[in-house]
Amino acid sequence: MLQVLYIFIPMLAAIFVPFLYKSIKNIHTGWFVLAVPATLAIIYASYIPKVADGEVFLEELPWIPSLDISVVSYIDGLSLLFSLLITGIGSLVVLYSIFYLDKHKEKLHNFYVYLLLFMTAMLGVVQSDHLITLYFFWELTSISSFLLIGYWYNRDASRLGALKSMMITVGGGLMMLGGFILLYLMGGTYSIRELIVMAPNLVQDPLFTWSLVLILLGAFTKSAQFPFYIWLPDAMEAPTPVSAYLHSATMVKAGIYLVARFTPIFAVSELWIWLVTGVGILTLFWGSFFAVKQTDLKGILAFSTVSQLGLIMSLLGASAVAFHGNGATDSIKFAAFAAIFHLINHATFKGSLFMIAGIVDHETGTRDIRKLGGLMSIMPLSFTVAAIGSLSMAGLPPFNGFLSKEMFLTAMLALQNFEFFGFDTWGALFPIIAWVASIFTFIYSFYFVFRTFTGKYTPEKLPHKPHEAPIGMLISPMILAALVVTIFFIPNFVGDTFVKPAVQAIQPFLYDSPKDIDIHVSAWHGEITPELLMTIGIVIIGFLLFVALPKWQSIYEKFPRALTLNNAYDKIMLGLDVGLNRVSRLYMTGSMRHYLLYMFSSIAAIVIGSLFVKDAFTVSFQDTAPIRPYEIILVVVLVIGTSITILAKSRLTAIIGLGAVGYTVALFFVIFNAPDLALTQLVIETISVALFLLAFYHLPKLGKREERMRFQLNRAIVSIAVGVMVTLVALSAQSQKLIPTISKYYEETVYSKAGGGNIVNVILVDYRGFDTLFEITVLAIAGMAILAMIKLRMNRKEKSHENK
Questions:
Q1: Residue 523: CB partners within 8 Å, gap ≥ 6?
Q2: What confidence tens digit (pLDDT) does each residue in 409-465 have?
Q3: Which among 299, 316, 340, 724 is placed 20 to 30 Å from 641, CA to CA?
């Protein structure tokens, strides 16, 4: 139970954040929140020794047993690594936010509630072994990230960025859900572990390819792969702590996690290998190329994140080749290791760089790189951290990014050696694209750090006089920068402890235990390798292009905005907005009669059509009770009372007619031996009539002016159709019993399961309890909305009095 509970601890803690924020004003709320991810990081760290030995931990909490839905926490090498990133980086982000967000100016209770909600969602994603609960947490990440990105909701850019991210990621999530459902139909289970065991048999199913494509759409949209990356740069409008957390270590890595987790199922498919590797390498090039165009520090980091995510994705695609044998296992088996190793490295150097971008913005008042420069002597600590992170991102020693980048180049070179799936021909493009993209990676890394901290200092362009950030704000990026350097010198400790258990989870058919993975990381292999020569070329050409950047950077202005993906997205959204508005105006006329016409005609057409198309209409008068004379009299009274209610010119007469209808129905209940229903009907009818009289007493009398309504054929047809529909359904339902009636179930279980003797009361209170709950909920929401509107009106009145 505790293992599942760990997932929900941040969400439970979020309940208390608003109370802490309002009651303890002198202490920054972040100090209380910091204890949550820090404690969880320590708890998950306790799993490291056993998971490194190959153990897994499984715990299940039933959620909706009738639908076979449970919250299943599964901790293996892959989920533990992500859990440590979520809580570890989360702790540093919360610490950073304490000094970044002013407790007097910011609505910290909102910020930390959203952040903790997101933390629970991410933990749920990476630990879920159940497809449906994984999807639930997946969409919860989209909702909570929408709230975080739009935290400064008074800014148009923040709202639009949040909306774009949610539209794209939620849309991809819906596609992914379709893939999950197809997997369930193929395997008959929601368990990912069980589906992995069935993988060799699933590939023969015709639904396999559809499931593969739909799940990849979910992964690609969440991890900002081409062409879905457009939401990530716009999401930079979020506060920097959000960017450092969501867009370097967690949310964008959810798509990476999904591909890694499902690789054992889909790696047997040629389509999976080509899509994952191809989209990844294209995203790597696209992101690195356009990162050099950006002038906003966070914009540069956004496109660099797109680029690095593409690198990791391409490595995961390459790792799937190892499932096919034919000599591929030994040649490409390190690709999964390189993907996970770079994932860790990226979280360290990119997290520190996002925080430095926030520091520069915080201390100078701008992120525009055209206004910055010469800050190295003013902000030496920030420069040092930025240099370490940028050089690691560029793939230079002695930083951890160099090691994983070399393994990446090796994997791309190895792809062209395989004769199956066409890699011996088209595979030659992968190392070329990887090399060119790495050159641009080198350029934007140098562009970020040296254009910001070196060059000419122009204080007149800066909104604030710059100075070094307070030490509290520097602690988190300095810790991450220290990890960047440390990992370079102890890569095999990191590999044995964190990477190999994750690799074993990705490639369970190749390794029985993490100890079976015989991969050794080294900065120098004792010989000149092709990847080392590629790195030398990257450094030389990248440096020359960086120096000459002012001469060729203008080529980006040649790209017409009309052909960009962002413009395409804007056009689609605008077209949908305009088009759907036009469609809405065709039927949203404001007339209740029109709306009733649409609804009744649709219902009648569907029901009557279904009855005849399915041959479901039958009329039989067998076993029916005879109609007695007094029943005919009661029906006549019903018709007369209904007619009086409609045609009466006096409200009092209409109420009397309506009451007659209600009391007549109560008499029918008495005749049919339903005294409880009769009593209920009599009570309700009496109260209703009394309330109507009380309400109508205060209304003006009905006008004497008569309005003659002309006959309309369409309304007559719809009215007749609805009457025919109800009659046909009633006759058909009475004439055939395809399945036992629900009343039989109530009769059999009202006492044994519900513990009541009055069947009507039990149905209303127990069997229909959710109906009552939802009705109360609707009333409560309406009441809160009315209260909020009243308060807003009162506040406006108070402000207007103050202005006067």
A1: 397, 398, 402, 403, 488, 491
A2: 999 988 877 766 667 677 788 999 999 999 999 999 999 999 999 999 999 999 889
A3: 724
716 token code pair: 């007559």
Residue type, 609: G
3-state secondary structure at position 206: coil
- The span from the CA of 338 to the CA of 344, in Å, is 10
Please count the CA atoms within 13 angstroms of the CA of 306 that sit on its side-chain side: 33
What Cα–Cα distance (Å) separates residue 584 from each residue in 399, 481, 581?
58, 55, 5
Q: Which of left, alpha, beta for 400 (phi over 0: left; psi -120 to 50: alpha)?
A: alpha
Rounded-to-integer distance, Cα 645 and Cα 654, Å: 4
Confidence of residue 336 (pLDDT cuts 50, 70, 90): very high
Decide the pairing of beta strands 57-64 and 69-75: antiparallel
Residue 418, pLDDT score: 73
Beta bridge partners of 10: none
By CB atoms closer than 10 A (0-12, 13-18, 19+), residue 608 is middle
> Other C-beta atoms within 10 Å of 97: how many?
29
Report the alpha-carbon distance of residue 389 to residue 410 in Å, rounded: 23
Mean pLDDT across 333-345: 92
What's CA 161's distance to the chain center, in Å? 15
| pLDDT for residue 648 | 82
C-alpha–C-alpha distance, residues 473 and 356, integer Å: 9
Element (H, E) at 598: helix 592-613
Nearest to 404 by CA among 490, 329, 344, 323: 344
Question: What is the helix, strand, coil percentage profile of the chain, to 5?
Answer: 75, 0, 25
**Alpha-carbon dihedral sign for residues 777, 778, 781, 784:** negative
Distance from CA of residue 208 to its chain's centroid?
24
Cα(86)–Cα(107) distance, integer angstroms: 23
- The span from the CA of 670 to the CA of 664, in Å, is 10
pTM of the model: 0.81
Q: What's the pLDDT score for residue 687?
A: 87
CA distances from residue 682 to 632, 676, 677, 678, 763 in whole angstroms, order as listed: 21, 10, 9, 6, 19
Give Cα separations from 52 to 49, 477, 504, 513, 544 (angstroms): 5, 28, 10, 9, 44
3-state secondary structure 19-64: HHHHHCCCCCHHHHHHHHHHHHHHHHHCCHHHHHCCCCEEEEEEEE
Cα end-to-end distance, the chain, whole Å: 61
799 — pLDDT class (breaks 50, 70, 90)? low
Which letter, b or e, does each residue of 656-680 get, where b requires 16 or more Cβ atoms within 10 Å of its Cβ?
bbbbbbbbbbbbbbeeeebeebbeb
* 699-721 pLDDT, tens digit each: 766 655 555 667 778 888 888 88
Q: Angle at CA 237, nearest 5°, toward 572 and 461? A: 120
379-392 as b/e: b if 16+ CB within 10 A: bebbbbbbbbbbbb
DSSP assignments along 332-374, one per residue: HTHHHHHHHHHHHHHHHHHHHHHHHHHHHHHHHS--BTTT---
Render pLDDT for 120-163 as a digit per residue (tens, 0 to 9): 999 999 999 999 999 999 999 999 999 999 999 888 899 999 99
